[in-house]
Task: structure prediction
Amino acid sequence: MSDTSRLDRIEKLIERHGTMIIDIEQRNANTIAAINEIVARTERANEAAHERFEAEDKRLLTAQILMNGAMQKMALAMEETTGKLDALIKTVDGIIRPKDPT
Result:
């Protein structure tokens, strides 16, 4: 009779151990599923951020090209203006400060 009692205790321990293993496996599966969902959301967020970054980079590059063109035009205009101002100053100088006949 002590063998049966011992055998019953062993069976109960095995059943409890099996139940614990199933419970642990279920918790692990739930944890892995939660981690996978977090990873998927993070990947989507990173992809969206990267797309926004690429769009902003493109806008900035376009603005830089346009600004460079505008600065080149402005430099040309300044050269023309400088030439005209030099000629005007020379003319006014000639009128205000007549040349010495000596």
Remarks:
- The helical segments are 2-96.
